[in-house]
Amino acid sequence: MINKKKISIFLIILIILLMFTSCINAMIDYGEAEVKPVNVTVTYKDHNTTKYEGDRGLEIISFTDELTGMEYTANFANMGVIRTLAYMTKRQFKFNDTICIRYQFDKDFPESRSVVEIKGKDGKYMALLDESRSDLSDEEKSYFDNYDDLREEYLAKQSKSSSESHVYHESSKKKSGFYYGSHGLGYYRSF
User: Fold this and answer.
1) End-to-end alpha carbon distance in the chain
2) Contact by Cβ (8 Å): 137, 143
3) Would you say which domain of life the source belongs to (predicted)?
4) Could you give the CA distance from residue 29 to residue 172 in angstroms, rounded to a whole number?
5) Dihedral (C-alpha) 138, 141, 145, 148: value to the nearest 10 degrees?
6) Rounded to whole angstroms, what are the CA distances from 123 to 32, 151, 181?
């Protein structure tokens, strides 16, 4: 028979380790900059271009800030940023004005920064063109290879992650359990 005290200690240690991991991830450095993108390169699996040709095969977009010479990137994992930049420039990536961006430092390439958000002229972060949005116009949807399929996958993933589960043990004296769901992981115990 498994000792309940050992299981409780194991779960507490597991929770502490998970909390520690979250703290480490929160230490990623972010910054903001006003940039004027030039020398924009859009890299697809089989070629490079300076124009947006859709999602399929896109790997990374990179550009240099004309003001500072710093290099910035956005990769396929953040397609919302790439689509938004393409939408702002009508697929051409030719910027007449500066834009304000929020970036994170790229661990693999310290001289490069990865764009994560874009600010509008009003100083607020823009809603990115991604599958989480249901309010996109037909023109905005044209920047997706298949918006409807991506939206359906997104909703299915959201529905799956929102289902929550409880695993608990109850006796006449004590009640304890392990909880996990869309907002994280937890352990509880009553005495």
Assistant:
1) 22
2) no
3) Archaea
4) 49
5) -90
6) 12, 28, 34
Q: Distance between alpha carbon 77 and the CA centroid of its chain, in Å? A: 7
Question: Would you say residue 191 has pLDDT above 60?
Answer: no
The torsion of the CA quartet 71, 73, 90, 52, rounded to 10 degrees, works out to: 120
Give this prediction's pTM: 0.68
> Residues 6 or more apart from 52 whose CB is under 8 A from it?
42, 82, 83, 86, 91, 92, 93, 143
- Residue 83: how many CA atoms within 13 Å on its side-chain side? 25
| Separation of alpha carbons 82 and 91, rounded Å | 10
Are 129 and 80 in contact by the 8 Å Cβ rule? The answer is: yes
Q: Which residue has the higher pLDDT, 26 or 82?
A: 82
Instruction: State the sign of the Cα–Cα–Cα–Cα dihedral 42, 44, 48, 53.
Output: negative
Using DSSP, state whether 180 is helix, strand or coil.
strand
One-letter amino acid for residue 96 of the chain: N
CA distance 6 to 10: 6
Phi-psi region for residue 154, left (φ > 0), alpha (ψ -120 to 50) or beta? alpha
